[in-house]
């Protein structure tokens, strides 16, 4: 089965067809691994027991878990897989491949554990593997996990870090996710800031970690912009981070720059709509700059270099 066939919604309408797609996705992945001459052990069932599968890559075995769901996976799903990994031979690691991605807290929750031994892959990684092969994708994932401590490094995060390391920017802004990066990028364009970059970290702990550890030039302003998630003391708790010039927390999340409260029944629709419409996003940004209800623009301008004349 091809990836395009797996993605075709017309052939996965019933609950049984959707369950079957999960099994087909697993077979698709192992077929792809074997096509690249990776040694595999496919999962199989014994009475009352599911035997995990895995791949032999760069000198060691990795357990593999594959899921195809409609919604991002909750952390409980990945914790279950991590339990399997922890129960194997010491030093065993795993690749979790979720077509639907992961909940916002998933990467952070796993990073708080005693050991980083599960690497997270998503649909973008699967699509990338179609182009460059799984050996390249997995090696990149392992590099970012080993060098940066990122168990979940989406392609956008990988590209952000590579860009940050390859060139000099006057302003570096670190945010949690892709939607945050789109929003903050729109603010930077509207404020006419020169020579800036937004680094998409793939989680709050990742953003804090990268902002406080990646090499930084002395004439660069580094700003960390985070959701408070209800923690109103966050700015004070993070004010002494190394390499970070300013932490700006937005209560309770960055989308509240446009909608200061979530009482409006259209709030969720509008928030999700921001991801699909750049013209709409730019309109909201212009309005947010004029109103500055949460004082975000005032705080941002206090640390940014002067606008172009």
UniProtKB/TrEMBL annotation:
Alphabetical keyword list: Endonuclease, Hydrolase, Nuclease
Boundaries of every Restriction endonuclease type IV Mrr domain copy: 21-125
Chain ranges passing through the membrane: none
MF terms (GO), sorted A to Z: endonuclease activity; hydrolase activity
Pfam families documented for this protein: Mrr_cat
EC number(s) stated in the UniProt entry for this protein: 3.1.21.-
Enzyme category, top tier: hydrolase
Keyword presence, Zinc: no
The protein's name: Restriction endonuclease
Organism: Duganella zoogloeoides
Taxonomic classification: Bacteria, Pseudomonadati, Pseudomonadota, Betaproteobacteria, Burkholderiales
């Amino acid at each position: 089965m091809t990836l395009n066939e797996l993605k075709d919604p017309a052939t996965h309408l019933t609950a049984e067809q959707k369950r079957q797609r999960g099994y087909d996705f697993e077979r698709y992945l192992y077929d792809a691994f074997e096509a690249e001459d990776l040694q595999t052990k496919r999962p199989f069932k014994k009475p009352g027991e599911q035997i995990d599968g895995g791949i032999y890559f760069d000198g060691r075995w990795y357990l593999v878990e594959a899921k195809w769901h409609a919604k991002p996976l909750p952390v409980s799903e990945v914790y279950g897989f991590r339990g399997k990994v922890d129960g194997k031979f010491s030093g065993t690691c795993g690749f979790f491949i979720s077509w639907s991605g992961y909940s916002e807290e998933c990467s952070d929750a796993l990073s708080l554990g005693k050991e980083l031994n599960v690497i997270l892959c998503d649909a973008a990684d699967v699509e990338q593997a179609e182009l460059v092969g799984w050996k390249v994708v997995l090696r990149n994932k392992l590099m970012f996990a080993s060098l940066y401590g990122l168990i979940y490094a989406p392609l956008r995060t990988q590209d952000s870090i590579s860009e940050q390391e390859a060139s000099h920017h006057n302003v570096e802004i670190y945010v949690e996710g892709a939607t945050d990066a789109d929003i903050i990028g729109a603010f930077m364009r509207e404020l006419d800031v020169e020579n800036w970059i937004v680094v998409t970290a793939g989680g709050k702990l990742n953003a804090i970690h990268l902002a406080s550890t990646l090499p930084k030039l002395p004439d660069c302003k580094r700003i960390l912009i985070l959701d408070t998630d209800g923690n109103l003391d966050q700015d004070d708790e993070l004010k002494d981070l190394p390499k970070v010039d300013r932490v700006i927390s937005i209560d309770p999340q960055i989308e509240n720059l446009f909608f200061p409260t979530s009482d409006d029944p259209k709030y969720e629709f509008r928030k999700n709509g921001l991801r699909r419409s750049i013209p709409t996003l730019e309109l909201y940004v212009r309005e947010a700059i004029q109103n500055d209800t949460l004082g975000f623009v005032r705080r941002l301008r206090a640390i940014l270099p002067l606008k172009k004349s």
